[in-house]
Design goal:
Elements lengths: L2 H15 L4 H10 L4 E2 H4 L18 H15 L4 E5 L11 H9 L3 E6 L18 H21 L3 E4 L4 E2 L7 H18 L5 E5 L9 E2 L4 H11 L3 E6 L9 H11 L2 E6 L16 H16 L7 E4 L8 H20 L3 H9 L3 H12 L4 H10 L6 H8 L1 H8 L12
Parallel strand pairs: 1-2, 2-3, 4-6, 6-8, 8-9, 9-10
Antiparallel strand pairs: 5-7
Helix pairs in contact: 1-14, 2-14, 4-11, 4-15, 6-7, 9-10, 10-11, 12-13
Bound molecules: beta-L-rhamnopyranose and manganese (II) ion (MN) (2 copies).
Length: about 400
């Protein structure tokens, strides 16, 4: 028996002792799905430069191969999210992408339009004061819906880089109207079964004003669009000190939380590995998700990573993020909710906080190792990835293929 197996037996015992069914916890962990970002497997960087890795993915086909390798070791990522302009095919057809991915055991998840990489977007896309830019953006939206349809995706993830850099540059109210009009065009072009996720970000690249600057603006806009429009929360898109888990609780309660872009931040939109800087925050977010699900609220959410692996090897950074996210979820599942609720009812602040802290401090590695083995995976995915020699294989197979130098996410 490996050490983790002995530890798992003890953990199982203690769960049963407090009336928790370990099978229920494992079943939830097995059902967890995290979409892999096609844009994170290639080279990415900051506006100051990009450190290149041999064999980094360039084409959408490479990206699918890389995501399939990640899924081979982690087992909870059978979906790849796509960023359309970075994932173009030579012939503009996308049904073959769906087939190729399916052959590797993957589906294509959220499709992200790109309205920020083009000279025409200097003053914005759908919020631009120039009517021809707005019309061109709407045409791109229609094409994105076609691409999503061909790839078998049901979700459009929309982040707008629109904003202004100087006070007085444009009318803030008129921009608000143009925003709604543009998104209504996108929403109207979507198939009935498709969902629109609207992401917010407090600043950058517009430094004076951002048209969808926070969850309030995203929620307000979604409410006007219709029931299939929901808020997308990118963990990096908040100012210092913002209580993200409270935003999650409110959006869940309103039935308007649609998705996550998981990553971690220290200062701004740093796009660091999920759970690497503030694992407690990630745990508290999952705690709200678990709490809402257990209260019977509909929790129909798309979980994606959105990261930029600037110094770490991309695939390893992604694997580590998946493992950290699983850990946060596992700990949230272990919260003794009966004890928590009792402490809350008794206004016992200390015990209530302790109920959360003791779940957070619990070592869930043995539990996750057990889940991985039951999913037919190695208990240590990172070690399995390193042992498999995939990095060396792509470094030689993709030699001379060209480079991909995206900006930061
Ligand atoms: C933005 C935002 C979007 C991402 C782009 C590249 O900051 O997070 O989701 O697609 O970066
Ligand atoms: Mn994002
Ligand atoms: Mn971002």
């Amino acid at each position: 028996m490996a050490r983790w197996e002995k530890q798992y037996v003890l953990l199982e015992e203690s769960l049963r002792e407090r009336g928790e069914n370990p099978e229920r916890v494992k079943a939830a962990l097995k059902k967890q799905v995290i979409e892999l970002p096609s844009w994170a497997v290639g080279n990415s960087g900051t506006r100051y430069g990009t450190f290149r890795s041999d064999g980094a993915a360039v084409t959408i086909w490479d990206k699918i191969d890389d995501c399939a390798e990640i899924q081979r070791v982690v087992g909870v990522c059978p979906v790849m999210a796509s960023h359309v302009l970075w994932d173009v095919t030579d012939d503009g057809r996308y049904a073959p992408v769906r087939e190729y991915a399916a052959g590797k055991g993957l589906a294509i998840g959220t499709v992200h339009p790109n309205t920020f990489m083009g000279q025409q977007f200097r003053y914005g896309s759908i919020c631009s004061p120039r009517a021809e830019v707005r019309a061109g953006t709407v045409a791109h939206f229609r094409d994105c819906v076609r691409i999503a349809r061909e790839m078998g995706s049901r979700v459009i993830g929309m982040w707008l880089a629109d904003g202004t850099n100087y006070a007085g540059q444009d009318s803030l109210r008129e921009r608000k109207h143009r925003l709604l009009e543009g998104l209504q065009a996108l929403y109207g072009a979507m198939d009935p079964g498709m969902t629109l996720l609207l992401e917010y970000k407090p600043f950058e690249p517009g430094f004076y004003s951002t048209d969808v600057q926070d969850w309030g603006m995203s929620l307000l806009t979604c409410t006007k669009l219709g029931p299939r429009a929901k808020v997308l929360v990118d963990l990096g898109h908040h100012l210092q000190g913002v209580n993200i888990e409270q935003i999650i609780a409110i959006l869940l309660d309103e039935g308007r939380l649609g998705g996550f872009h998981l990553n971690n931040r220290k200062y701004a939109d740093d796009d660091l590995m999920a759970g690497s800087t503030n694992p407690y925050e990630l745990f508290l977010i999952y705690n709200e998700l678990v709490d809402a699900a257990q209260a019977g609220l509909p929790v129909d959410i798309v979980y994606m990573l959105d990261q930029s692996h600037n110094i770490e090897p991309s695939l390893e950074g992604i694997i580590q993020s998946v493992l950290n996210t699983q850990k946060a979820y596992a700990k949230a599942l272990l919260v003794d909710r009966a004890a928590l609720r009792k402490a809350q009812a008794d206004t016992d602040v200390v015990l209530a906080n302790r109920a959360l802290m003791s779940a957070f401090e619990q070592d869930v590695e043995p539990l996750l190792a057990q889940v991985r083995v039951e999913l037919g995976r190695d208990p240590d995915p990172l070690a399995a990835y390193r042992r498999g020699g995939y990095a060396a294989k792509i470094a030689s197979a993709r030699k001379g293929q060209g480079i991909n130098t995206l900006g930061g996410g």
